[in-house]
Task: structure prediction
Amino acid sequence: MAQALEGLHVLDLTRVLAGPYATMILADLGADVIKLEMPISGDDARAFPPHINGESAYFMSLNRNKRSMTLNLKTTKGKELFKDMIRRVDVIVENFRPGTMERLGLGYDVLCEENSRLIYAAASGFGHTGPYSRRPAYDAIVQAMGGIMSITGQVGGTPTRVGSSIGDITAGMFTTIGILTALAHREKTGLGQKVDVSMLDSQVAILENAIARYTAAGEIPTPIGNRHPSITPFEPFDTKDGQLMVAVGNNVLWSTFCSAIAREELLDDPRFETNALRTANQSELRPLLAEPLLQKRTAEWRELFDTVGIPNGPINSVDEVVVDPQVVAREMIVEVDHPVAGKTSLPGIPIKLSATPGAVRQSAPLLGQHTVEILRDVLGYSPQQIADLEQHGIF
Amino acid sequence: MAQALEGLHVLDLTRVLAGPYATMILADLGADVIKLEMPISGDDARAFPPHINGESAYFMSLNRNKRSMTLNLKTTKGKELFKDMIRRVDVIVENFRPGTMERLGLGYDVLCEENSRLIYAAASGFGHTGPYSRRPAYDAIVQAMGGIMSITGQVGGTPTRVGSSIGDITAGMFTTIGILTALAHREKTGLGQKVDVSMLDSQVAILENAIARYTAAGEIPTPIGNRHPSITPFEPFDTKDGQLMVAVGNNVLWSTFCSAIAREELLDDPRFETNALRTANQSELRPLLAEPLLQKRTAEWRELFDTVGIPNGPINSVDEVVVDPQVVAREMIVEVDHPVAGKTSLPGIPIKLSATPGAVRQSAPLLGQHTVEILRDVLGYSPQQIADLEQHGIF
Result:
């Protein structure tokens, strides 16, 4: 079955996380992604632990479905070859610090002269405009500056970094959306454009109601802990062998819940009659619920609550996530055979398309694995030309 | 200037967060999004506090640039009218619990008979397949089940929910990517398809290196706190008046950093000679750095570190985020005039397109504000037909 983005040619200069995440999504959905890497070292992430037979699990999880070509962009011949490629691709993606491509003489203004249909996507820490544009950023820094740390953590506790690099990942996702949007526009006009996404902007864009709460009500949001600010009970409880998140969203569910935990007497307690009262009196209510919840194992509660329709879920650790029946049924953990690392497990594809489903077709490439193939098949170079380039250390 | 998605007609049945976030991105980039709401009540989020002159700030922040039409889908006439609209739009988006549209007789199989070009996007808690498909989910539940809580929090501390609803938001973003991908495919084939995105899948997809660490090395990730697991110092420090995140990624920066904080003697300390040693001896190093950092205010350190090139950033609260010079320069907080609420501030658009920039063109709609206009202009109904529908309580 054909894939949706088949025929879309992407030249991928990205490293580490934000950019590679964007091009991974495109590759998963069928695009031909050519990952351009510096000879010898390649993507920095190739060095990130843990390694399996010398191959980085981190790198492998972000670069499946891509081809790797090495090219030294600091050489004149390398730049020429690069421009030759630019004329044959639809999209270029980079996540250098702003100014880097310009210093190489390969900025957007230069490249769009070579190919007016080119979509040039840049993911960076602070974006290509504004006073911080040229500053270096890391995920931890934009999580700090973007406000999400200030609302994450235990109530009254210290601001807390989100445990996955969502500063990078959401920037990667917005970059993908920008590329596909520019593509839709190009279908109508034949013209490419530049897509500029910053990690800091992306953090602001996912702050959700925190911005509304502050700008509308003047309230400065603080770490909200694990409970819902206005629905009760809507929080995790300890069980006999773990924890369980319970979400009792209305009075019908409250009645069901009290029966399920054998605490029907709470239904007659005036302190807990409505959600507003349960929320106001949460500190009195919580111990009365915590005690019965401790009496059964998480799996027992889940079965009981699922049967009667109370929204609930365990707090899974990663080893539990990867074997969860729903995660497995949705193919969100896939196995792929890597020529050096052997069979490895990777996250699956969260976008399920009925007619043109994405697929993890191949493992991440070895450094420069496809250089010769691309020079020959994409650029049409002769064996003599290729040998010549190799001799000059261009790849 | 034209917008990239101009001419894309989206019928939006979504409520609350995940779905509205997806259609907001489309609307921000130029799509015509018609928000279909139940008469009288409308989107549940209209009731979410805080309110300004009775208008929910939460709702307003997610539904700008959309038009609102009311329609009772439980009536026969309402269903007919709905199918009439389906024949005229490109995309339908819904985030009901799976099975809801089928019970209304308006499932994907029915609707694609009406319009083979239709792209049908569904965002749900667990997805449209698999054993948990029909179960209710909330952000807190998928954050718990999807593993991100298990890696967020202080070291040795309790699993912590991310302070914004990234379970919803990332599902919304993947839904947008799915829609635009299906659109690219339709350009080539003329055929629509179904896009099925689940909040749980989306959580797995953003777990990043946690899955690689576990599946490759067998290590079950736990809350990692605020410091980098393998780079030191790369963590927040208290200052005289707040906190500052500092990221000293290599030995050159380490030398610069020690000079900047006037602790050159640390450069000769064998315990801290390399990054590996600094990481191994972090507990001894931290107090030696914490003491000088306490001596100046955050703004003073920022100026000093920015001058010498040490990556750093304050841990901003939301009131600080919205006035940050870079956030302001990138137009990530925009003001819009609402007919009832007056001037309100909203998050801006994180996807910056050079030729067809997105725009916050208008405030969120009042319930049913555009019903008559849409019946007349989109469906071509006569005043008599419209009056008739109104009399039957169809909208």
